[in-house]
């Protein structure tokens, strides 16, 4: 199946010499939820701006729906929705009028039933006559989503959609995004909340300093880069590691009172090796009083990649 979005060699260098994007290659599948993770200044918003026509790339190509965005931007842009990071909007307009106006900007005929459905799904229908400026920050962000959905985009960008939103509203938005996928909408989101990617995304991309470090299916990434850490509290401290433990990725910490295991690929392999380790301790007559096992989350993987000097190895990079 042809990807809905294909980015190749995309680079953006500003007049002052700052390079926000460096030779970015990215392919997005139709109907997926793709999460782009990266710290502030990594290039996430610049990448979205380039696809949505807000930023002119220095080099590279962008194809959407099988066509060149550079050559057919005006026509293709109508099939793309954007929820920007900034909350700036027509603050003195009532919610309903503002959302209807967004649909009209793309030359579409009024569709009151659709707009009502969108507003109800976002818990905005009761606020339809309220001026946007009177709404809370979370509700204003919901209005931005409603405006982006008003022209029924096939490809939707969400740039930090839940920034500044409380946990309850955030989870409501997650449900709305899941409903969009059920309708066949392709969703690309950037986020600082890694639990959002872990909760919703089919695939995850990690960007740092304008470069894509890795793109992979979420489950595959966690299996390939995930690790297990086990802290085994010993009944009696050890002065050093016994020879039989040399086969395991373990170290002694806390003055020999705790045996620390770090290894395994993903949860299953690591957990199985910890079980073997505890059996080996028992056979050797080394008693322990407790085990604390922690499996890598997507956040652990993300932090490890960003802290590495060069990101993942060539073998690990997608």
Automatic annotation (TrEMBL):
In terms of SMART domains, this protein maps to: AAA (SM00382)
Q: Kindly list the GO molecular function terms attached to this UniProt entry.
A: ATP binding; ATP hydrolysis activity
Where do the ABC transporter domain residues begin and end?
5-234
Q: Which UniProt keywords apply?
A: ATP-binding, Nucleotide-binding, Transport
Instruction: Tell me which CDD domains the record gives.
Output: ABC_DR_subfamily_A (cd03230)
Name of protein: ATP-binding cassette domain-containing protein
Among its keywords, does the record have Ribosomal protein? no
Which species is this record about? Answer: Novosphingobium silvae
What Pfam families does the record tag this protein with?
Answer: ABC_tran (PF00005)
């Amino acid at each position: 199946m042809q990807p809905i979005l294909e980015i190749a060699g995309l680079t953006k260098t500003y007049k002052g010499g700052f390079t926000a994007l460096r030779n970015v290659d990215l392919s997005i599948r139709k109907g997926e939820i793709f999460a782009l993770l990266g710290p502030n200044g990594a290039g996430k918003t610049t990448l979205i701006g380039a696809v949505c026509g807000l930023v002119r790339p220095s080099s590279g190509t962008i194809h959407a729906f099988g066509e060149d965005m550079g050559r057919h931007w005006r026509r293709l842009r109508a099939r793309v929705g954007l929820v920007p990071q900034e909350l700036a909007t027509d603050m003195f307009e009532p919610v309903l009028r503002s959302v209807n106006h967004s649909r009209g900007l793309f030359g579409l005929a009024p569709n009151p039933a659709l707009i009502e459905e969108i507003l109800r799904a976002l818990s905005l229908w009761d606020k339809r006559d309220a001026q946007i400026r009177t709404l809370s920050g979370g509700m204003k962000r919901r209005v931005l989503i409603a405006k982006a959905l008003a022209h029924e985009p096939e490809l939707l960008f969400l740039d930090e959609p839940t920034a500044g939103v409380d946990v309850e509203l955030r989870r409501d938005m997650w449900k709305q995004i899941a409903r969009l996928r059920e309708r066949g909408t392709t969703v690309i989101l950037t986020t600082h909340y890694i639990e959002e990617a872990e909760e919703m995304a089919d695939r995850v991309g990690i960007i740092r300093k304008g470069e894509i470090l890795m793109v992979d299916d979420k489950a595959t990434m966690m299996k390939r880069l995930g690790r297990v850490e086990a802290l085994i509290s010993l009944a009696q401290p050890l002065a050093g590691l016994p020879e039989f433990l040399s086969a395991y990725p373990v170290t002694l910490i806390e003055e020999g009172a705790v045996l620390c295991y770090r290894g395994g690929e993903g949860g299953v392999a690591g957990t199985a090796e910890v079980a073997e380790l505890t059996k080996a301790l028992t056979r050797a007559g080394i008693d322990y009083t407790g085990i604390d096992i922690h499996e890598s989350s997507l956040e652990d993987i993300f932090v490890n990649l960003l802290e590495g000097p060069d990101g993942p190895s060539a073998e690990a990079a997608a």
